[in-house]
Amino acid sequence: MPTDTTSGAGRTLGVAMIGYAFMGAAHSQAWRSAGRFFDLPSTPRLQVLCGRDAGAATAAAARYGWTEVETDWRRVLERDDVQLVDICTPGDTHAEIAVAALEAGKHVLCEKPLANSVPEAERMAEAAAVAQARGVLSMVGFNYRRVPAIALARKLVADGRIGEVRHVRAQYLQDWIVDPQFPLVWRLQRERAGSGALGDIGAHIVDATQFIVGDQLAGVSGLTETFVKERPLVSSSSGLSASAGEETGPVTVDDAALFIGRFAGGALASFEATRFATGRKNAIRIEVNGSLGSLAFDFESMNELQFFDAGVANDVAGFSRVLVTEPEHPYMSAWWPPGHLIGYEHSFTHEIVDLVRCLAAGEPPRPSFADGLQVQRVLAAVEDSAAAGAGWTPVATD
Amino acid sequence: MPTDTTSGAGRTLGVAMIGYAFMGAAHSQAWRSAGRFFDLPSTPRLQVLCGRDAGAATAAAARYGWTEVETDWRRVLERDDVQLVDICTPGDTHAEIAVAALEAGKHVLCEKPLANSVPEAERMAEAAAVAQARGVLSMVGFNYRRVPAIALARKLVADGRIGEVRHVRAQYLQDWIVDPQFPLVWRLQRERAGSGALGDIGAHIVDATQFIVGDQLAGVSGLTETFVKERPLVSSSSGLSASAGEETGPVTVDDAALFIGRFAGGALASFEATRFATGRKNAIRIEVNGSLGSLAFDFESMNELQFFDAGVANDVAGFSRVLVTEPEHPYMSAWWPPGHLIGYEHSFTHEIVDLVRCLAAGEPPRPSFADGLQVQRVLAAVEDSAAAGAGWTPVATD
Amino acid sequence: MPTDTTSGAGRTLGVAMIGYAFMGAAHSQAWRSAGRFFDLPSTPRLQVLCGRDAGAATAAAARYGWTEVETDWRRVLERDDVQLVDICTPGDTHAEIAVAALEAGKHVLCEKPLANSVPEAERMAEAAAVAQARGVLSMVGFNYRRVPAIALARKLVADGRIGEVRHVRAQYLQDWIVDPQFPLVWRLQRERAGSGALGDIGAHIVDATQFIVGDQLAGVSGLTETFVKERPLVSSSSGLSASAGEETGPVTVDDAALFIGRFAGGALASFEATRFATGRKNAIRIEVNGSLGSLAFDFESMNELQFFDAGVANDVAGFSRVLVTEPEHPYMSAWWPPGHLIGYEHSFTHEIVDLVRCLAAGEPPRPSFADGLQVQRVLAAVEDSAAAGAGWTPVATD
Amino acid sequence: MPTDTTSGAGRTLGVAMIGYAFMGAAHSQAWRSAGRFFDLPSTPRLQVLCGRDAGAATAAAARYGWTEVETDWRRVLERDDVQLVDICTPGDTHAEIAVAALEAGKHVLCEKPLANSVPEAERMAEAAAVAQARGVLSMVGFNYRRVPAIALARKLVADGRIGEVRHVRAQYLQDWIVDPQFPLVWRLQRERAGSGALGDIGAHIVDATQFIVGDQLAGVSGLTETFVKERPLVSSSSGLSASAGEETGPVTVDDAALFIGRFAGGALASFEATRFATGRKNAIRIEVNGSLGSLAFDFESMNELQFFDAGVANDVAGFSRVLVTEPEHPYMSAWWPPGHLIGYEHSFTHEIVDLVRCLAAGEPPRPSFADGLQVQRVLAAVEDSAAAGAGWTPVATD
Q1: Which residues of chain B fall short of a pLDDT of 50?
Q2: Is the peptide bond before D338 cis (omega within 30 degrees of 0)?
Q3: Quick one: pLDDT band at residue A1, thresholds 50, 70, 90?
């Protein structure tokens, strides 16, 4: 008795993915898995993977489960079997691809940061607004919003469980380039990456905290630093490794960025993003203090949310370690019994679920390109402040 | 340019899965994902899902990605396109299916506990030995061995990093039946489940600790208890919920089991398995103390291993919280960058990877049916001890 | 303007302390400090310190603040300026001193374990009962009852906050004799110490858990082990250090003891006391699971109590880390503002406060000698069980 | 046989304490206890307690163990039996008392912050320099330097164990005035307290971090905020409580202050001090990231230091939880066996020990008044920056 091995109500969604590195692997798993655990209004078809190197792209497509390969993203936009373009390339290509895709009538999921500059991001947000009027939708990939503990944090704040927000503090701490011999990869070059820790990981905590508190940063004072100013060039033969005597080149992005600021609603903010926090691998730490309670999160324990409820009697009050694996928790009824953890990649699966549902319902998904633009403006304000000696810098608005 | 969307070197492995509840969902995700992240010598084909209810089985097959459906497991064994049978049914059916499958020349992966009784397990282990001589292999699904932190613990012990093992203490704590109104599901009935907390979750920590220390329990003194002796029957109409006035029935398995014991090598052991640890959802906690160091693990933080190295200078000695997400850690180079966590289901993916590799190499996978039998004998010794008033009871050996 | 530098309402309590090692230092600090932070009905006078070595005792008295020195404890009992005798000597001397002191009309505080054997403890409990009829009171020094987090745990259980108790698990883990070259000090000799880990530290967790749950162990099955059977003799010249080539002697007490058991009220119990848990320094870990909630404590974080309240809504339920430093918490209003921790020695100060208040009120303090005897009977049942191959052994009652 | 109940080699040090509130209780315990656990070159005599209200001061003296009382601090300076003045009054009185005491030839221990303004602090530092030339010494009471975990952190940095320091982040989080009905106590009034969270608790983390890294902040950008701008006046009759309908007054200090900055040696800094972090009672959290390792501390677990050693092999690398209770750790050999914690007040005892030893040796104790002045200048730079819109502000130097 043969079965239809795809879920969904018969409708399918043809997807093309541009780029296939780290993010490509994560997105592919999400596209493959979303309908296996969640009820979707249409079934994603992993139609085409696009990469400039035909051989590598073909291997990646086989590995990740994509049916076909293209080597020119413009060809992808001409295909009728593609309804959505998933952009997983470095930031310097986002604007061109995304705008063209939207104009071609394709829905777009674009990895973060939305773009490498505010003007690019503005162009993308404009294109998204125009497209949306035609029913063509777009989303930027701040996947951490879909970590259940962060979604729960958002819900608790929105429900008033911590009252008026007074403090937001967030750090995104990594350590992968502490070694000065680590080579000059593309993420350390401004022309490719736009910025360093600020745009790569700072963008995530700006989005995640604004999402959680339901408010936006109004102004900042920031500092950036490049601790290791020259690094070995990546030799064409050896990939990431560098040999003695090889040439070096300048690191043109920040190793670390930190800033203080104010939210529009009056909360104080303290942020830090760094690739030099020795021993911290992917520590996204977020704390929110309100008049009635507090929340704390650390991605190194991503299935937990700490919650302090000031309404609890003083003799038993304390931060509760909520294991966010109950069916009542966002996204979790689709997975395993309580106490069975999920991982990093599940945030992408949840992102795809929400996106596919929005597309079917004709509702604009969030975070939108406008949300991505606003994050970009926060990052630009931090860079401007840092360039001008850490002076106060308002975040631009429309 | 079309691609082959399956990985592997062209060879495939036809899989049939019997049963499709909780374990079926986990196994399916593992079968689908293993080749997407790991290099496999052959590509699993999710050929047929087997369940007695055709409609439900068909829906499950569509959801989980299986090509065909059978309603009689005996039919599965007759199929030439099936090389491996994955048994995900309750324990009372394991022996019959597994022995028949092995005799039919199918490799077998059987969920734990291997069987509901020692005689059944003995029959299975014998069948496995006979089959192995013919190149037909088998494995029992103690998936927690494939949690990277537990695999790392095993490696550290085997490498002598904690010296001679003196203490093993393990607890598997859940709380899903604390409410006395929770109904009399099959897991609370001896004829279906064999035992309660002891076989369901106690089996896991017996296997995991024996795996980590590379030794076996020699004898035990145990206690078991059924705190809630009568529960509402599951009404056919309402699934898990029970209404007032409904009939009740006796709980015929243990709610909790605990025992002390000795390993063959002299280490002292303390074990506890319970479904009445209010607030603990799936807390598998394992500690091992050796003459040169110690290890501690808690599944509620499954990506971490605590390691104490007695060789470190006293002023900085302490338990290190090792985030088991480095490429050096077991299984982890296939996944994400350091600091990006994995979840419960990944243990099954790793299990499948190891199994498929063993099959290709013709090497007997572990844990074997003999390993499963030995765990069963430990559980039986605990039950015998408890029945005889907690007296000392040696664990049977061949 | 001169002041009376002692607190209290003019009455004083003359105290004599027998023994002045580790416990002597802790008790002295408690006697000196109790009235500085708490309102006491009478002011302790540190009247006389007693030790066999006049020189060492005199130095200790000066260091610890005692007015006079005696070298024979029998002389202490003849003094009119002594109303209370505080026994800090090894366990083999407790019975003789305590019984004589009670007969001499002195109140007695006796360090734990109450005695080295049940018969001794029985004699002491009888003497205490006789003395109490004459208004002479006694207490055994299970100081951990006076750790605020443990006192809070007791209160929460007594108030019904965790419902019916189902599980008690406790471990007292140390590692100070893991090194096989650690010498054969008196604590490793049965004739002085009575037993090893069992009596020294196991006694504490037996008392603490029985105190918390308000119930007593009814029966046990136990194991004991001596991992290192011979150790270097302590050379008279070098104190604790041992030189190569020196003689060794047999360790005649247990290095580790573990047992399972049942409380009279039906709760299951799992206990472990060991000096071989490498990396654990003084880890007293206690967990209690009830039908409505759970508690967890670890002395390595002694100012915290973990509390799970099953009545909290599932989306925010979790173990709360209660920082036990609020004025509402037992003993804490006498100390510092919230968040300012206290330490180990404070448990003794609280013990003295409670004792002095009881003496003034004529109320028998707890834990009584009868409580100490009952703990001794539990320890004896564990030893008997271990000697008889871990069979079930009821705890003796009166 | 009578004994001399004071320790030390016969010499004594006459101490006068001005003020006797919270800090007075802590200092008194430290003065009483220092010689009981540490070998001191001279024995502190608690000679005179000074307070304006004779009755209250007399009661405090009796409670805390001081021999005499004075009601005018100027009288204290005239006494020959006083060699050291311990200033525990609010900050607006520090300068006058300290300068006069130094001029009178008395050694001075002054609570932090050194003064309420930079000019006052400068005057005090000058007086201290003049006095030091005459052998009269002084110290400011940043007691957290003497928490063993912080002293250990300092030692590890000084020993090069974490390499070049790149990041310092510190927070001092409290929540005692979150309730808007909490009254307008003196700590919320600029004329008495100088500043709010910034001076009261921010001062501690500025000092502690500069101490740990052995470097000073060179410049800052800061924000301050007063969330609750009006509060009930403290009624004379009711102490801290406020009744409905009572008058309110303006809060004239900051509720929270945060800043980013740079250390002279190039490390980036992020600081936050607040009384509005709901659920955090006295959370002093300090992290330092260096090129070879990292450190993390939280006062809510004050007996622990987290240490990451980048030199450890990657498979077992992780933050070690060092329980700072070993004899090898600063100050700890004087206290209890490993694993037995100490508390908040012990930091003052250690402060007294170091001070008394310095006085005897004629060595200037640290932190000096010059150190206190430098902290004051950091705080002033933060205030100046905040007043000027968070612009970059260098920290003044001599």
Answers
A1: 6-8, 237-242
A2: no
A3: low
Whether the ω angle into residue D367 lies within 30 degrees of 0, i.e. cis, is yes
Q: And the tokens for D267?
A: 């490390």
Contact C263/B at CB under 8 A: no
D125 backbone dihedrals φ, ψ, rounded to 5°: -65, -40
Q: pLDDT, tens digit, for every residue of C355-396? A: 999 999 999 999 999 999 999 999 999 999 999 988 999 999
Fold classified for B147-393: Dihydrodipicolinate Reductase; domain 2 (3.30.360)
User: Could you report the predicted ipTM of this complex, rounded to two decimals?
Assistant: 0.94
CB spacing of A32 vs B32 below 8 angstroms: yes
What's the mean pLDDT in D72-100?
97
Binary contact (D315, B329; C-beta < 8 A): yes
Distance CA D326, CA B72 (A): 66
> Of D119, D71, D117, D79, nearest to D101 (Cα)?
D79
Which tokens belong to D263? 């250390």
**Distance between CA atoms of B173 and B284, rounded to whole angstroms?**
6
Residue ranges matching CATH 3.40.50.720 in chain B? 12-144
Distance from the Cα of residue C134 to its chain's centroid: 26
Q: Distance (Å, rounded) from C-alpha D314 to C-alpha D318?
A: 8
**Confidence label for C3 from pLDDT (cuts 50, 70 and 90):** low
Domain C12-144 falls under CATH 3.40.50.720: yes
Cβ burial of A364 (10 Å; 0-12, 13-18, 19+) is middle
The DSSP letter of residue A240 is T
β-strand pairing of A293-298 with A304-309: antiparallel
Judge whether D294 is closer than 8 Å to chain A, CB to CB: yes
Superfamily of domain C146-343+368-393: Dihydrodipicolinate Reductase; domain 2 (3.30.360.10)
Q: Where in chain B is the domain with CATH 3.30.360.10?
A: 147-393
Indicate the SS3 state at residue A44.
strand
Q: What is the pLDDT of residue B34?
A: 98
Q: Is the pLDDT of residue A118 over 70?
A: yes
Residues with Cβ < 8 Å from D17, sequence gap 6 or more?
D24, D27, D28, D31, D46, D48, D49, D50, D66, D85, D86, D88
- CATH 3.30.360.10 assigned to D145-393: yes
3-state secondary structure of A274: strand
Question: Which has the closest alpha carbon to D174: A114, C337, C29?
Answer: C337
Please report, as a single letter, which amino acid is at residue A329. H
Tokens coding D1:
């046989």
For residue B363, give how far its alpha carbon lies from the nearest alpha carbon of chain D (Å): 27
Among D318, A345, D311, smallest CA distance to B305 is for D318
In the three-class reduction of DSSP (H, G, I as helix; E, B as strand; rest coil), residue C324 is classed as: coil
Tokens 């009784």 correspond to what residue?
Answer: B117
C162 and chain B in contact, CB less than 8 A: yes
Picking from A173, A279, A284, A275, the residue whose alpha carbon sits closest to that of residue A227 is A275
Cβ contact D93:D124 at 8 Å:
no
C271 alpha carbon, distance to own chain's centre: 17
* Contact criterion met (CB below 8 Å) for A73 and A97: yes
Q: Which of B156, B159, B309, B315 to mutate to test the interface with D (most CBs of D within 10 A)?
A: B315
Whole-structure pTM value = 0.96
Mutation to test the C interface, candidates B174, B220, B260, B312, most C Cβ within 10 Å: B260
Reading the block at residue B171, the tokens are 């607890």
B68/B84 Cα distance (integer angstroms)? 15
Helix (H, G, I), strand (E, B) or coil at D108: strand
Q: Model confidence over A250-265: pLDDT tens digits? A: 999 999 999 999 999 9
| pLDDT at D346 > cutoff 60 | yes
Q: Do B167 and C268 count as a contact with CB atoms less than 8 A apart? A: no
Q: How close is the nearest chain D Cα to the Cα of B213, in Å?
A: 18
